[in-house]
Amino acid sequence: MASITLQGVRKTFGAVEVIPGVDLAIEDKSFVVFVGPSGCGKSTLLRLIAGLEDVTAGQIRIDGVDVVQVPPAKRGLSMVFQSYALYPHMSVRGNIAFALKMAGMNKAEIDRRVTAAAATLNLTPYLDRKPRDLSGGQRQRVAIGRAIVREPKGFLFDEPLSNLDAALRVQMRLEIATLQKSLGTTAIYVTHDQVEAMTMADKIVVLNAGRIEQYGSPLELYERPANLFVAGFIGSPKMNFVTGAPAAALGAATIGVRPEHVAVRPGADGPRGSWSGRVTVAEHLGSDTFLFADTELGTVTVRAAGEIGLKPGDSVRLIPDSARIHRFDQAGRAIRG
Amino acid sequence: MATRQTQILGRSVTAPSVLLLLAWSLAPLAATIYFSFTYYNLLNPASGQFVGIDNYSYFLTDPAFLASLKNTLVLVGSVLVITVVLGTLVAVLMNQPVIGLNIVRLMVIAPFFVMPTVSALVWKNLLMHPVSGLFAWIANSLGLHPIDWFANAPMLAVILIVAWQWLPFATLILLTALQSLDGEQLEAAEMDGAGPFSTFFYITLAHLARPITVVILIETIFLLSVFAEIFVTTGGGPGLATTNIAFLIYSQALIQYDVGGASAGGIVAVILANIVATFLVRLVGKNLEA
Questions:
Q1: How far A147 CA sits from the closest chain B CA (Å)?
Q2: Strand A186-191 to strand A203-208: parallel, antiparallel, or no bridges (unpaired)?
Q3: Do A203 and A80 fall into the same domain?
């Protein structure tokens, strides 16, 4: 239950500048996701907030108090690690209770809290097991239990679901989001998976090379990307970018249109502003079909709902939805209005 | 190696070497058992007759036996404690990022490559010698009376030498184990509010439980048969102060020329080693499971 504010936070490792300067305000009780390609500094930023790395310059304020000089345990944040980092020789109970024991809490209170956390996470039957006797999902729950039992001001998640299989990931995603809402604790969540980012976040921070490219709600990012990077990073399959004459006609250096906003029609003829192409690959997912078509503008991806009867080699006409074309200037910034 | 054919092939090809190895180790054991039941003295040409368990009762009732048994246990136990405790601390230190770590590492490992006889001689003549040794010089320059190690504290001197030799082994094993400790675990402990001492006891030491078991098992095997260090420095004395079982058997065979008695002692030592090993495996072996 805290607001977290970053002001001019910089981090360098030797001569390498990983975070050139970040300003960010995270509101109380919100779920913020840091997303970006690998090496973009999102984990480093999280570790700076946690206190596992020292900032080179700048302030990190939790509830208005600068915590740059405060050791990690005293910041009131708890962290869930990518590898879970469970203590292998301690039982589940020991793992969850460790932080409380270190804080010198009395036994009865520790017991009460551990029991409550275990009940929340459906871990009660496993309390006396060792981590190695648990499945991946259960270990993940123990790691979360270890985080919530301290009743922290904020949770920090460092790619916590990347070691789980796809089905479990969807389930844990839901559980984490539900838990965060019911506890009302501020959470920062690092991931490279944009589906996790879009589904869990109240607000998303898109990072690239240590810089914040855009900070906004998932739909804001999808509908109004601030620049080429965000436009290309958010959305799957990736947005189609077109340069040259079609872009110049709209007064932009680059235009982008999402695959789901391109209509496809078999045959070689189509209305003005449409592109002719030839299907190279068709991916049939059942609910959707992804078409990759060669056009004079390069490869264009199309996402069509349901099943359409097009095969590689077919001639198609691609009609972008003119209302949903994103325009970008020479520097890659979005042109509004 | 899954099919029956490859299994049969594998077994038939390895069989000769296994049989040779078996013969190689069983023949001396059989000979020792045989000699242990005969009167066999190198100075007496009329030896070779069967004497039953005389050699055993003689060896076991010898007051030197109990003394040397006690010495063996003291030596093994002390060296184990010193090497494990110091080895853990040195390994923790060496696991820190320090400048010149490679050189430090080499220096720490070096004693292990020195032959026992050589290191014992170095300790005896260069370090612990009451007149010309380094320790005596230090004591003198501090205005203290130098200690005559091998006369006044012979067992302690032997323990120090042997511990010095085995410290690198313990350090090396524990250091490699420390390097496999997951960094995120340490960070998790840091987030959980564990200080350096709590982290050491709850995380590091717990992580080292298994390698420490390995160190104890392996060192025990070798420490039960320490010989060269005693032979070179004290010769088992003064009196019986530094005679362990291995040295007692040696003196039986090659000082008193009593091969029969020494053989009996050898068999007793084998049985004792097995008892110790059984206890040890029971005591610490559960650490090695799973």
A1: 9
A2: unpaired
A3: yes
